[in-house]
Amino acid sequence: MALRTPSIFRKFVDMEESMSLFALEVDGVRIWERIRAPLYLRLQNRIISKKEETKPKQSLKKRIMFYIKSIIRLDKNPLFSFSKDVLICGSQRRFLHEDGKWWDIYTDYILDKIEHSTISIERSWQLGHRKPSKTKNLYYFDIMETLIFIANRLKLFQVNLQSHEMKSLLNISREIKKRFNIYIDVMQYATTVLSRRKIKLAFYRVLLKRINPKLVLLVVSYEREDLIEACKELGIPTVELQHGVISPHHPGYSFPPSTKQIETFPDYILLFGDYWKTRSSFPISSNRLVPVGYPHMENMLIRCKRLNKRKQVVFISQPMLGDGLVKFAVQLSQIDDFDYDIIFKLHPKEIANWKEKYPLLVDTDIIVADSLEQILYDLFAQSVAQIGVSSTALYEGMAFNLETFIIDIPSSSYFHDLIEEGLVHLVSRPEQIRDILINKSTTDEIETSKIFLSSSTERILEFINRMVNRNA
């Protein structure tokens, strides 16, 4: 029987506590909190999907051009910027808006309304940036990526581990192999993170002294440990904007109760709603978990009111779970008396090669939404039901009053509490979806105010203004 996400995470936490991993220091750094999230997510993916997630390879020419541009484009180099009140590290995964611009959906709704001066910095997306972007005063972290590349090529800032440190890291790999029957090279994770930390920390110190922000906003904190470390050194508060599902089994937010302090965790998290405050074992006090709402979704709800419902259902795909979702969608399409159109919404990471990855979808009646221009919220507004596993989008679909079906596979535990409350349906066979939709005469309003607070933009602006004024 396949392990489910809660079981995997419990076994992982048991290992952490039995080996006192959060206290482990390597090269003078508490290493575990820096490698925990990517290591666990890789382990979970290999257990559930039985394969490694692959990233698209970039050509040598594209990489060289990227590094050259990062050096000569001084107008996008944040080290040449000026003092600002708020530094925003947004999302490089942008979405094309109706205005023809690429939006950072987590920050662009509030940027123009912040009464203090701001600067936004983003990382590259597949060695590029979406243009034209909506974000004002936007800089890139490209020069930092180039410095890391140069240092690696010249073997600078290498980490020389002590024998006892090597032994400790090897023991973790052995313990993972023993408990999960999967080998992960923990030493490689640690040495890579530590060598990059030396470059990043120096870069961030110079950057923060240059910009001198009163507040730093992050879209994802568990990829920004070195930035958070530099901020804490300089007494700059860090705030994460919730960007996705927070669950009791998410390694970026859920920590063992015995863990007293995580040095690289943000000072505050701005949550979509009250519901999320109790969804994880956060390493910060509850008064630093601030429900504010989700401006992008709130704006999309207003925008989509003009659209009418159709007799259609939408599948929400995810890269590591796509195979199971595709099989389920095809089986549903083959039910004779299921007369709903089926839309299969691909994740942005799946679009480039979906025909090779999901050949079952080719030559079917299923409509594949394979364009970044296809707005997910339009599909929500026009559909009567959504089907998926653990995507954040499923929560958003509930706000559009969609009948929600969670496919019963290992990652479905994210919705356990909502399944118990009867707000969503757990299904293992396509026929269950047909039966529920056919027998449902009316659609009751789904209460989602705890999941997504209203007046989100105003709440976020109030918080930012309060924090900046406090640190002025």
**Total beta strands:** 17
Instruction: Enumerate how many helices there are, as a single number.
Output: 16
How does the helix and strand content classify structurally? Answer: alpha/beta
How far apart, in Å, are the first and last alpha carbons? 57 Å
Portion in strands: 5-15%
Strand order of the largest sheet: 7-6-3-8-9-10-11
Largest sheet: 7 strands, parallel
CATH superfamily of the largest domain: Glycogen Phosphorylase B
Percent range of helical residues: 25-40%
And the CATH topology of the largest domain? Answer: Rossmann fold
**CATH architecture term of the largest domain:** 3-Layer(aba) Sandwich
Low-confidence stretches: none
The domain count comes to: 2
**Overall geometry:** globular
